[in-house]
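input
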Amino acid sequence: MQGSSKCRAWFLPALSLCVVMAASLAIGQEVTYPAEDMKRLDAFESHMLTNADKFFAKKDYRRAGAEFDSFLLEFPKSKAAVYALLRKARSLHLDNKRFEAIKVYEEVLDYFPDDVHYAAAALYYHGLCHQQNGDVEEALKSWIDLADDVEYSRHWLAAPALKALAENSEKQGKHDLAAKYYDLVAVNFRLVSGGHTARQSLEKAINYYLRLQPDKEKLRNLYIEAKGFGHHPVKKESVLEVELEEDVTYWNTVRGRVRKHGTFNQFQEEQKKQYYRYWAQALAGRFPDNDDYQIDVISFQHLHSGDTAAWLSALDKQYQADVMRGGYHERILKWIRLFGDQRERVEALYKTCKFDQMEDRLVQDLLQILYADAKCPDLARELFPKLPFDKMPAARMKGLLLFLFDKAKDKEMATFLFGKFRFDEMNDKQKAGLARSLWGKDEELVIRACRAITDKDLSDLNQLRYWHRRRDAKEGLPLADKLRTSPDHTGEAHWLKAEFHQWAKQWEDAIKAYRKTGREPYSLWRMVDCYVGWGKQKEAVAQLREIENFFKKQSSKAALRIADVYKRAGMEPQRIASLRRLMKKYPKSRESSLAHGQLEALGVRIGGGEDAE
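output
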């Protein structure tokens, strides 16, 4: 075998973690003999090889190894000899005879080095044997040889090995070499089904060429060879054959990546400047009519220079180049958002709006931009009279209302907008949804929305739900009592009433209400909680016995809770007896294991015990 001299000295003390990962990534996958090749063998060869494969599939590796060896003795010149030799080595390997397996893998490499499908696999497994023997140095040597051979490095088993080499290089600070290996994985295995490793490696290579060592030429070559940077490779070759220097799709991809990778902390100011200087220059001079593209280039220039005056001037120039491009008002909105806190420029653009010609949706968009981006609430408020509330859909009005509460923090205008809702055109579901969306924002508006619901029981129920969320029994209990006779809502009314009483530690009233909910066994569990809170252990245990006897899926859980009731009451003998009873009655349950652990912690003998009452 050749290749040990190729191993870099710095590489040898690399951590074994990545090597282990290389092994784990390939677990469960085996090199097989193609069906078409099997058909070309004579009947005796095919029968013997198939028989050996059957033993291998059954994981009877010792018998499989013997069968493959017999095949090689019987048919030494067979076209399947290389496969049989690899399978013989693999059988020894999986039978934990790794030192013998290494020798047979080397035979594959010595006698069949040009039979890539099997030789590359042998080289990968050769390294894996060394890794499993604890010899990371030799494992890495094998995988470096695998990476250095153009054909071998395309074998599917090379992917985890190359990724391990890349990660080890990265840990050693050898980023150039790491990028080389990540690049190889990305390019060689992008088209492999389920190429998660390739996608991860592609992202690593992109990050290197984009940020760690910016290089637009290598980035472009990677884009071509990896068939794009998307989650899935580009399928049409013609897409990538165009001249990328003038391909807007490619350069839009690059500028998007520059933004994505362009986050720096406060201690990386110099790296930030260098990064944006490089990419601003690389992106400049293209697509002058593409506003989004030019805005990014101008932004990147600003990020490296810090010259705000130049940034504003460049944006002004781009805007004035064609005030109609992309839509007159759409363009105004885009630039107002860009200028942000530049009040004078925002006002100047605002004054150019032709509101009599402006679409309603754009008026609303402008209002939200003035609040959120430009921080000009006074200008935003001027737009309310221009909004067509008499025909605006309820869903849009609701979205704007929530924006005013959550983003704009303008309660006054939110209240004004609420008054514009056309409740007579809304159904009860919409009204209830509006009320719920206002929980935690404005109590008065919640109640107003609830009272607008036509179905009076549903109106009361939504108010009850609100007061229940607020734990306001004073307002909620009268509504719960009112709804007790409602055929559609009696169960929920009793449940919420019970919780009001439980929160107030009014145990008896809570238990009475839970009994009327019709929500067994959930209500029974709540009654147990109330009895425990009330200090009535006997009643709590009796209730748990009822759950245990009538709700089989929760029997073991109820039995464990009985022991907990006794524990809380300081009744240790009864607790121990209950735990023993649980283990005897429900031996295969999760609760039985928990009971066993509790008894061990108490130092109590396991087994025996009588029922506890």
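quick obs: The chain has a mean pLDDT of 92.
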